From TrEMBL:
Top EC category: oxidoreductase
Keyword entries, A-Z: Monooxygenase, Oxidoreductase
Designated name of the protein: Salicylate hydroxylase
EC numbers for this chain: 1.14.13.1
Molecular-function annotations in GO: FAD binding; salicylate 1-monooxygenase activity
Domain FAD-binding span(s) in chain numbering: 279-337
Gene3D superfamilies for this protein: FAD/NAD(P)-binding domain
Matching InterPro entries: FAD-bd (IPR002938), FAD-dep_Monooxygenase_BioMet (IPR050493), FAD/NAD-bd_sf (IPR036188)
Transmembrane feature ranges: none
A Pfam short name: FAD_binding_3
PANTHER family for this protein: MONOOXYGENASE (PTHR13789), PUTATIVE (AFU_ORTHOLOGUE AFUA_6G14510)-RELATED (PTHR13789:SF309)
Keyword Repeat belongs to the record: no
Length: 400
């Protein structure tokens, strides 16, 4: 068992990975768990969009934190099918997930998910607390953060385990590893959440292509539709204002016949109506790294930035959290030092995360400039792809 001083675990970022880790460690009296979250208690980053979480996250969460799994599943819609068609209406693929997974995934709104994950944290999460610097000195690991309620900078010393759940632009990764230039894939991805309305033809997860230009949509709880559109961009990586106009977007998805199928017409109509609410982004990924030195652990997007093509960013953040909580519990139960947790998590997670990053990148093939979505989708029905999909959805980490 540990010595007399409570071991201090600081989790920076109350996002997917950070919130789950902090709640998974709550109730352990010998741990002093502090979660620092930049946004305020009622603000939600990207609250205006939705996401699908893969069957693998639910399977891993059920095994490691069943009460968290129950809360999330109970407040979401099941993700049970993946269909792909052309915007003209020709269906290319309609895959029941039960063929490749042990359980469904979920569909949910970001705001709902963050609220569910942060709710059990109580006083352990400090909102409006933005990490400004971190490092290691004579007293060990420390962080400095700006507390928005007092505008003052505060410092936490003697940290036994520092966990970076601060996302893709992680200050902790930047300090302890290096600032990595993202790898851009030359694809613009934009997101929109809007009320479904009475005649909504959208239900479970589906995609519609016109050349490499893609619409993706599904319903989320609360009678909303989440839509993510994409199109290739030039080598300069610039998304111009002209590309963002409703007319230009409609043109991208309109097939040669000039007639969109009912689902694509519904989505393009919504894109036109809600154009000013769209969130714009570009596809990018980076290298995988969990262990940032003794006592410093990277998780989620800070550890493995990946493209969202297979809906695995948040999904892998959930898998990470399950393993991290398990490793910390094991360290508490035995005599292992918390400073060794990063190495152990890295040993259990790196190969799988690298597989998911590269699989997600490969699955983006039909969204790249010049791609043929028909040939590319037919390849996704072959064993070379479906076997890897089964590995993705079924081979999840379980508590040791
Ligand atoms: C367009 C798009 C669509 C996506 N769709 C999906 C999808 O459908 N399914 C899926 O699984 N994934 C999806 N993702 C990926 C997903 O958003 C991320 O992979 C996931 O949120 C990563 O979780 P995380 O816990 O690492 O970080 P986040 O959830 O990003 O949380 C990071 C937290 O850290 C906080 N923070 C950051 N800096 C600081 C600081 N200095 N101090 C204090 N707090 C800080 C932030 O406020 C935030 O709350 C998508 C991503 C994009 C861009």
């Amino acid at each position: 068992m540990f010595g007399q001083r409570r071991k201090r675990v600081v989790v920076v970022g109350g996002g997917i990975a950070g919130s789950l880790i902090a709640s998974g460690l709550s109730g352990h009296e010998d741990l002093d768990v502090i979660c620092l979250e930049r946004v305020g208690a009622t603000d939600h980053m990207d609250a205006g969009t939705g996401l699908n979480i893969g069957p693998n996250a639910i399977k891993a969460l059920k095994a490691a934190m069943p009460e968290r799994a129950e809360a999330i599943v109970g407040n979401s819609l099941a993700w049970q099918r993946w269909s792909i068609a052309l915007t003209s209406g020709r269906v290319l693929m309609d895959l029941p997930l039960e063929n490749v997974a042990d359980n469904p995934g979920i569909r949910i709104r970001w705001a709902e998910l963050y609220a569910l994950l942060r709710k059990p944290l109580g006083a352990a999460i400090h909102y409006g607390a933005e990490l400004t610097s971190c490092g290691r000195d004579g007293d060990g690991l420390f962080v400095v953060y700006r507390d928005k309620s007092s505008i003052a900078e505060k410092r936490i010393d003697n940290i036994d385990l520092l966990i970076a759940g601060d996302g893709r632009y992680s200050k902790i990764r930047e300090h302890f590893v290096l600032l990595e230039e993202p790898r851009f894939l030359g694809v613009c991805l934009y997101r929109l959440l809007f009320p479904a309305g009475a005649e909504c033809p959208i239900d479970d997860y589906a995609q519609w292509f016109n050349g490499p230009n893609r619409l993706l949509a599904f319903r989320v709880p609360g009678d909303f539709v989440y839509c993510a559109g994409s199109f290739p961009i030039g080598d300069d990586g610039i998304v111009t204002e002209a590309m963002k106009t409703p007319a230009a977007l409609r043109e991208r998805y309109t097939p040669e016949s000039g007639v969109l199928c009912a689902e694509a017409e519904y989505l393009v109509d919504a894109i036109e109506r809600y154009a000013t609410r769209i969130h714009w982004a570009r596809l990018q990924d980076g290298t995988t790294r969990y262990d940032a030195g003794e006592g410093v652990l990277l998780v989620g997007d800070a550890a493995h930035p990946m493209v969202p093509t297979l809906g695995q960013g948040a999904t892998q953040a959930v898998e990470d959290a399950c393993v991290v909580v398990d490793e910390i519990r094991r360290a508490r139960a035995g005599s292992a030092s918390l400073s060794d947790v990063p190495r152990k998590v890295s040993g259990r997670r790196t190969e799988r995360a690298e597989f998911v990053v590269s699989f997600s990148r490969e699955a983006t093939d039909t969204m790249l400039a010049g791609a043929d979505p028909v040939a590319g989708t037919l390849k996704k029905l072959e064993p070379a792809f479906t076997t890897r999909l089964q590995k993705l959805y079924r081979d999840v980490p379980v508590p040791l």
